[in-house]
Design brief:
homodimer, alpha+beta, Arc Repressor Mutant, subunit A, Dna Ligase, domain 1, 2 domains, 3-stranded mixed beta sheet, DNA-binding, manganese (chains A, B), cytoplasm (chains A, B)
DNA sequence: ACACTAATTATAACAATTATAAAGTGATAA
DNA sequence: TTATCACTTTATAATTGTTATAATTAGTGT
């Protein structure tokens, strides 16, 4: 399952002429196996055992490369760090305001919203983002005691 | 019109026990009259004629205060600065990827999405955010030449 | 083997924001 | 009035996430 994703991702890199370095392989693999939408720093820390000399810039550089070829999506929030999501199928995110947990949420794309926005504003729409915020079951429990 | 907004906002501050200082008055007034969803720095620069000694921290502090009492909404994007929006009625934003222009977009709240998310994930949903990205008419023109 | 390009590393720089401490301001009440 | 006390502002330092730079290393094609 994840192996297929990795293989496909490596193929995509090859096709687009992006060199597959050990660091890139490891970052991709970690991203695919990670269910937690990690930050650049989390990736950096997770791989420092395997690559003691890897620079944090390498992580950022390669995440940018992956984003540019469409393998990875960058989730940006206000102050906090960006989180990175390996692209599989289109989905939205539900985010816990208590603990920061991010849960994937499948929902049909909001094409109608884009169409109306285009009509009303005259913009040529390229995409939209949506996130849903709330409290996860665990945090809701804690609130009640 | 805007005068009413300002008056109501000042009333809200009084009710919640937030002191109305000259700086706060000016920041609020500027936000209400501004149609451009300014950044903290833009507010700071716009008011430095009137308040040559005002600290940038004052702008940030007071924007936080306004946010906490619900007068102002903070629009956070990835890398760039937050933008601040005086709260009037619920609306979304359409953002030009070319020039950064932000246009207000009225659309009924996506209650159904929140309900489904709640049902599927077990979260207690508090709110959602959505933005629509694209190219404004002016930038679209420029692209074509 | 050689030259060329891309990738990595280490480090410095940057920009937005927040923390801190000192000084100022204003409301309240003795 | 004046003493007090909490809040606010200011000036500045610190922090954090990210990007830029320059030098080194590694990989690829000829």
């Amino acid at each position: 399952m994840e192996q297929n994703h990795l293989r496909e991702a490596l193929d995509t890199l090859k096709e687009t002429g992006v060199r597959i370095t050990p660091q890139r392989h490891a970052i991709l693999e970690f991203l695919i196996n990670s269910m937690t939408h990690p930050t650049a720093d989390e990736i950096y820390k997770a791989l420092e055992g395997k690559f003691p000399n890897m620079s944090v810039a390498t992580v950022y550089n390669n995440l940018r490369v992956f984003r540019e070829v469409g393998l990875v999506k960058e989730l940006t929030f206000g102050d906090a760090s960006s989180r990175f999501d390996f692209v599989t199928t289109q989905h939205y995110h539900v985010i816990c305001e208590g603990c920061g947990k991010i849960v994937d949420f499948h929902y049909p794309g909001l094409d109608e919203v884009e169409q109306l926005a285009s009509h009303v504003t005259g913009f040529k729409i390229s995409h939209h983002r949506m996130e849903i915020y709330g409290s996860c079951p665990e945090c809701t429990m804690k609130e009640v005691h």
